[in-house]
Design brief:
Number of strands: 4
Order of helices and strands: HHEEHEEH
Strand content: 15-25%
Largest sheet: 4 strands, antiparallel
Mean pLDDT: 86
Number of helices: 4
Radius of gyration: 20 Å
Helix content: 25-40%
Strand order of the largest sheet: 1-2-4-3
CATH superfamily of one domain: Transcriptional coactivator/pterin dehydratase
Shape: globular
Structural class: alpha+beta
CATH class of one domain: Alpha Beta
CATH architecture of one domain: 2-Layer Sandwich
CATH topology of one domain: Gyrase A, domain 2
Low-confidence stretches: none
Length: about 120
């Protein structure tokens, strides 16, 4: 039984440019010293095991849940997503960059800065 294959249509120049735009940027790991310097401006954030993280406290569970959703929305805008641990009245946000060997990059710092710029302030 003979099979035939269809030739794939060639991508147009516009499609090729769009594919390049869609590719995630290459992110480089920061040195421990650079991370420490960056965290001086981010109150409460700590550098732990090649991540940066902060735990926020809230007066009730739903406030923490709303905050976690806001963090997720901000992260989506940066196309850079943290691990978010939601507990009763506490939310821990942890960043590292998968395509930089799970180390901290400037993108992690930028998203943390955006979170810190929120007008909504948790208890702690």
């Amino acid at each position: 039984m003979a099979t035939t294959t269809k030739a794939k249509p060639k991508k147009t120049t516009t499609e090729a440019k769009d594919a390049k735009k869609a590719a995630p940027p290459i992110r480089k790991a920061m040195t421990d010293e650079a991370v420490a310097k960056a965290l001086k401006t981010l109150h409460g954030w700590a550098h732990k095991n090649d991540t940066i993280e902060k735990t926020y406290s809230f007066k009730d569970y739903l406030d923490g849940l709303a905050f976690a959703t806001t963090v997720g929305t901000i992260a989506q805008g940066f196309d850079h997503h943290p691990d978010i641990l939601i507990k009763w009245r506490k939310v821990t946000v942890t960043f590292s960059t998968h395509d930089a060997d799970n180390k901290v990059t400037a993108t992690d710092i930028k998203v943390a800065e955006a979170i810190e710029a929120l007008p909504y302030k948790p208890e702690g």
